[in-house]
Amino acid sequence: MLICESLSLDDYLMELDEVNYSHPLVQQKAKELFHLSKSDIEKAKIAFEFVRDQISHSWDIQSSRVTCKASDVLYYKEGICYAKANLLAALLRSQGIPTGFCYQRLMLFDTPDKGYCIHALNAVYLASINRWIRLDARGNKPGVKAEFSIHKEKLAFAVHEEFDEKDYPIIFTKPNLQTIAVLKEHTNALEMYKHHLPSQL
């Protein structure tokens, strides 16, 4: 059961420093991706698949570059999940589609002794079906297969509560401050990913 941080959909349309959808790069990409005839479901699917498939996850490509703002993620075509969530929110908010931020607490690698991290994804309100859906544009790879679905969630990661993982139910209007701070404080994405990601909200 998802819980909205705010009851006002307008709060999920705000332009923020990190969700800078007025930036020319974001505006240009939105024009390329969307047409006026597209429904909100079609736009959400197009934006999700673009960010999932065309923006590389920094860890997957072993890149040290740190991106944060939506426009920078778009320019460099890479970022970790926090940054990719900023871009997906910017693209959809630019179209008047309410988009929020959701989080999971996951094992950083494959066992609890290697630590935990907060993982970011998005929730999108689709007026045509009067419902929020969650989308994880982290990027697919062997063992990770997130898909667009309005019927059943197909997220990147299953949450294993027996290993102290957690699925936070709140749809936030803004990115978590810890996630933005870590992006701003570090210059090497690989070191940041291994040692400095927040482990709980």
From TrEMBL:
Pfam families: Transglut_core (PF01841). Residues 73-139 form the Transglutaminase-like domain. Gene3D superfamilies: 3.10.620.30. It comes from the Bacteria. This is Transglutaminase-like superfamily protein.
